[in-house]
Design brief:
The protein contains eight helices and four strands; from the N terminus they run αααααααββαββ. With 145 residues, the chain is α+β, with helices and mostly antiparallel strands. It has one domain. The protein has a four-stranded antiparallel β-sheet, with helices on one face. A hairpin with a 2-residue loop joins β3 and β4. 40% of the residues are buried. This is Lumazine-binding protein.
Length: 145
C-alpha cells in the first residue's frame, strides 16, 4: 500500500523523544495495539499542547505537509503545530488531549485507531471519519493520516 511506503521522520524522533531531557518514553517503538494506541494518545496530547517536536516526530512527511498546508502553507511542522494549538480554546485543547480512543485495529504494519473528537478537531488531527491511520516503519509507529 502507498501509505506503508511513506517515509517517517522517526529516526530523529527517537532522539527527540528520548534525548530532550523531557523523559518521554519512546511510545512509537511499542509493538501492536498498545503501541498504536499510545502513539495516538501522545500525538493528540502533543497537538493540544503545541508540542511541535513531539507531534511532528510522530507524523509521516505527508501528514506534516497537510498540517502545514492547513495553517497557511508556509513554515514548517513545528510552527504549524504551535499555530494550531494557539488557535484552540482551552476546552478544545482539553478535548483533544483527553480524546477517548475506541477500537484499535492492527493488520501487520498498518493500524487504525478510532478517536472520539468534534469534527473540527478530528480534521486538525488528520483523523478522517474519526479514525487515525498509522503505519509501522523500521520498528516505529507513525501517524499517516
Amino acid at each position: 500500500m502507498a501509505r506503508n511506503a511513506r517515509l517517517f521522520l522517526l529516526a530523529p524522533a527517537v532522539a527527540l523523544v528520548t534525548g530532550c531531557g523531557g523523559g518521554f518514553e519512546d511510545v512509537a517503538a511499542i509493538p501492536g495495539e498498545e503501541g498504536a494506541s499510545r502513539v495516538a494518545e501522545t500525538y493528540l496530547a502533543a497537538l493540544a499542547d503545541g508540542d511541535g517536536p513531539r507531534a511532528c516526530s510522530l507524523m509521516d512527511t505527508a501528514t506534516q505537509q497537510t498540517l502545514i498546508g492547513a495553517h497557511g502553507g508556509t513554515g514548517d511542522c513545528l510552527a504549524a503545530v504551535k499555530g494550531a494549538a494557539e488557535a484552540l480554546s482551552s476546552a478544545q485543547k482539553e478535548e483533544l488531549s483527553g480524546a477517548e480512543l475506541g477500537e484499535v485495529a492492527v493488520d501487520g504494519n498498518s493500524a487504525s485507531v478510532r478517536v472520539e473528537l468534534a469534527a473540527e478537531l478530528a480534521a486538525l488531527a488528520g483523523a478522517d471519519d474519526g479514525v487515525l491511520a498509522l503505519a509501522r516503519q523500521e520498528g516505529h509507529w507513525g501517524i499517516t493520516g
